[in-house]
Design goal:
Length: 189
C-alpha cells in the first residue's frame, strides 16, 4: 500500500508540474539574447562623427560604372534601335561555328519557347495560345539585323522583356543575335 501511495503522489506532483507549463512562452531563459535580440537598423546614423546623417548605402559618384562592365552605347528609344540596326557583331569571325553553337544552345533555353526552334514564331507557348503575336524572323516588315536583335535582347521590345540579366555578358547576347540571323537566313531559303 505504501508503494501505491508513493506512485500516486509522484503522479500528482508530475501532473502539477506539467500543468503549469505554457507552450507559448519559454519557462526559463538561460541566454535571453537568443530570445530577445537587440535590433540594429541597417545604415542608421552613427554617433562617432563619421556619418552623422547615416550611411544610406552611399550612392556612387555621377558617371561611374561598375568594374568589368561597359554600358550599351545606344539608348532604349526607337532612334537608338535604328542606330543599333547598322551595328555589326564584334565577335571573332574565325570562331563562327563555336559562336553559333553556343548561340543555338542559349536560344533553345531562352527564346525557342516563344519564337520557336526555327524562328517562325511558333513556339510552345504560342501553340498553346498563352502568348499571341510573336512574328517570324523572315517577316520582311521587321527588317531585323544582328544589331537590332542585340538591341532587342538588351532592352526588350513590346511584351518581350529584356534578357540582359539571363544572358551573362555581351558575348552571349551577341551569340544569340548571330544565331537569330542564321535562323532568319534559313527561313528565307
Amino acid at each position: 500500500m505504501k508503494q501505491f501511495t508513493k506512485i500516486v503522489a509522484g503522479f500528482i506532483v508530475l501532473l502539477g508540474v506539467t500543468s503549469c507549463f505554457d507552450k507559448n512562452k519559454p519557462n526559463y531563459q538561460y541566454m535571453p539574447n537568443m530570445y530577445e535580440s537587440v535590433g540594429y537598423e541597417t545604415y542608421e546614423a552613427v554617433d562617432n562623427g563619421l556619418f552623422p546623417e547615416g550611411t544610406e548605402a552611399m550612392v556612387a559618384p555621377e558617371n561611374t560604372i561598375p568594374r568589368g562592365w561597359m554600358p550599351y552605347e545606344f539608348e532604349n528609344t526607337p532612334e537608338g534601335k535604328e542606330l543599333a540596326r547598322a551595328q555589326a557583331s564584334p565577335l571573332d569571325s574565325l570562331q563562327q561555328e563555336q559562336n553559333l553553337e553556343k548561340g543555338a544552345e542559349l536560344y533553345g533555353l531562352y527564346c525557342a519557347i516563344c519564337h520557336g526552334n526555327k524562328g517562325d514564331g511558333q513556339g510552345h507557348l504560342v501553340k498553346r495560345e498563352k502568348i499571341l503575336g510573336v512574328p517570324s524572323y523572315d517577316d520582311v516588315a521587321r527588317n531585323i539585323t544582328v544589331g537590332s536583335t542585340y538591341h532587342t535582347v538588351y532592352y526588350g521590345l513590346n511584351s518581350m522583356g529584356s534578357y540582359a540579366a539571363q544572358l551573362h555578358g555581351e558575348e552571349e547576347m551577341w551569340q544569340v543575335s548571330e544565331y537569330v540571323m542564321k535562323l532568319k537566313e534559313d527561313l528565307t531559303k
